[in-house]
Amino acid sequence: MKYGYFDNDRREYVITDPRTPVKWVNYIGSLAFGGIVDQTGGSLLCAGDPGLNRITKYIPQLPASDFKGTTLYLRVRGKDGVELISPFFTPRLDAFDLYECRVGLSYQTIVSEIRGIRTEVTIFVPTGESVELRDIRVTNLRDDEVDVEVVPVVEYSHFDALKQFANADWVPQTMMSEALPIDADHLALLQYPFLRKDGAVNYLSASGAVSSFESDRKIFLGGNEYGTWREPLALASGHPLSCYEARRGDNIGALVLPLGTLQSGAEERVVAMLGQAERDEIRTTVTKYCNHHEVDAAFERLADFWSANLSVFECRTPDPDFDAMVNVHNPRQCYMTMNWSRYLSLYQLGIGTRGLGFRDSSQDVMGGLSGAPGEAKELLRKLLSIQKPDGSAMHQFYPATMEADCGDAEEEKDNGKLVYGDDHLWIVSAVCAYLKETGDRDFLDEKITYYDASLSIDGRPDGTVMEHLCKALAWTKENVGDHGIPLLGFADWNDCVNLPGKAESMFNACLYGLGLREMIELCEHLGHDDLAERYRGDHADMRQQVNEVAWDGDWYVRYFTEQGEALGSRNNAHGAIYTNAQSWAVMAGFAPEERASRALDSVREKLNTPFGIKLSGPGYNQYDPEIGGVTTYPPGAKENGGIFLHSNPWVMIAETMLGRGDRAFEYYSQINPAKRNDDIDLFEVEPYCYPQNILGDEHPQFGLGRNSWLSGTASWTYQAATKFILGIRPGHDGLVVDPCVPSSWDRFEVTRRIRGASYRIVVENPQGVSRGVASITVDGKALDGGVIPYCDGGEHLVEITMGEESHGVVEDVTELAAAG
């Protein structure tokens, strides 16, 4: 069954049936103020810290039919008496004549028609502000006039979100409300937990006059709360609300906003505001947005931001689903993931235990930096500041305080395992990606402190960004196991394999190899020849070690236990092959051509499915404490033989490095959520963003997606599509052109804006090849080689003809491995 469609002209996905298989959400605002809005208008908002500054009470585990944090009612008086309408479908669940939820770029527009009343509500957070606006337009489609009252409702969370579930005595005593007059016609209903040290107050207000309000859930629902959100007795009565200013209890905010009499065909507009500010700022914000021209201008600024963000890379290919994701939905997800990391979603609730991850955000930067390089740079600074003086890194940090910890590794203090073996290495690729995009070489000389919780920030040692990168590589070089492979630590990228003792990780070896490749390229660009030569030697040493000890005959092993046993080996009954050891051996330049081909063929033979490539297989079928969390899942779920989507684009990239464009694109299409739009009852999650995982073929619900939105899949799939399939990627000296596309594509175009210039790149493929560049012209002049030098502004036409005679833009995998 279909639940909606892509409106590519408006850059929206349009949900036409609110009864989606699971909650489908969109992100509005930013981590500073914002959150998620679902397909029926419920919202989970926070400011700065989802755990310690939660605003709305949205409980994802409750049924989708329940009230969720915020909603809207209309009270309509006509010739048939008083009618109660819920324009967002929930919580009344009435049958609609029309329902559209337009999932836009940081906004949600819900349009509904029921019983002759049309409601259109656009929900968004103005850029840089701490208020959610709900721009409400009501149209009378009936033949007769009606009187309409608009009633926005919010249920507040305690700002310390967990406490509302853990202390049913203290929390209600601290929840209180207060009516704050704005002027003669307007008021703001405050939710004021007096314990807030920063003076911040949550408030609900509107651009229209308030005739009455309610702040106590018990009174609003009525009947000692045996009234329901579907039929709040305080509204059903038709009477004004109580105007009670609660001093304890379950706080809500409900405002009755009379629109007056609407003649047939007439429309009225009112804007509801849900925000957080100090008391003195509230009047300023409310007064500003009582002017609807200011609301329109704020929405235009939001549109301008996204137009600029998405214009840096636009493509036109023979595959419309590919174009929809690459041009709109994938970069939008990349930006949101760069902003939110894994901090707030329906799956990770950001309550007390989950900050921004060093590993996660380092990868997210690489997908989001082209559209927002300034924000990316600031995030890189934060990440570098939680790298430790020895070169390793803390696992996560809390952006409100910049305190950091080692995540689950904290539990392993007694065993000396306070380090994830991969965290610190990701920053090397992230910084290099930023430098290639921006050319900001001065960033390398910027001094940033190292993390030491025992010292004040002012007293911590510092180092240049370049020194941070060098220390990251040095830590891994110095911490290897008996096989000469880098130590696993508590875990590597695969958090769920936690081997005791001095276990070794093939993933860490390959991530180290890729980091060395990036640093070799950077040092050559900077003229640091001695350092480049040293890193070439380090790469060659690790390459030799990997191929001596980790090749298992048809693929590379994934781990070595402290006792020397290989995991991810043909000798294992479960977990015999892991995808990442194969793709990353190619990406690192470690795998000779024959082994690279064989390893990736093994992935296809043993792990590929119609819905994507499994992370490993066969799945473990019972808990094994020596292996860890991966064995707690049933076979086919998550890391235990599930289709962990994050690892799929790494296989795509590896396949393009072998020139196998048809296979790379097949893998891309397998996990493209847009291609699941007609099969949603199986897939269930949103078709406009990548989930984290899909249940694998060993699971009875094979094909079911979960954990959407905040996933490293977004960044890496965007990179795989733009940099490796379309093959347009920034280098230090120019744009590298190296497409590896389906052989059936005869033509495609890319517009790439970078460093102040715009390049329209037209690629013709008359011979039907997957890879190879026969000729390139820039503004009509032939280019010798496959790197387009950066131009100083302007618009430029690049014409490329693919063919068998390649310029050798990127060395083949054998040359990469030999060069180290």
UniProtKB/TrEMBL annotation:
Domain Glycosyl hydrolase 94 supersandwich: 11-291
Gene3D superfamilies tied to this protein: 1.50.10.10, Glycoside hydrolase, family 65, N-terminal domain, Maltose phosphorylase, domain 3, mpn423 like domain
Single annotated GO MF: carbohydrate binding
Biological process terms in GO annotation: carbohydrate metabolic process
Record domain Glycosyl hydrolase 94 catalytic: where: 305-727
Protein keywords: Glycosyltransferase, Transferase
Keyword Transferase: yes
InterPro entries on file: 6-hairpin_glycosidase_sf (IPR008928), 6hp_glycosidase-like_sf (IPR012341), Gal_mutarotase_sf_dom (IPR011013), GH65_N (IPR037018), GH94_catalytic (IPR033432), GH94_Enzymes (IPR052047), Glyco_hydrolase_94_b-supersand (IPR010383)
Name by which UniProt lists this protein: Glycosyl transferase
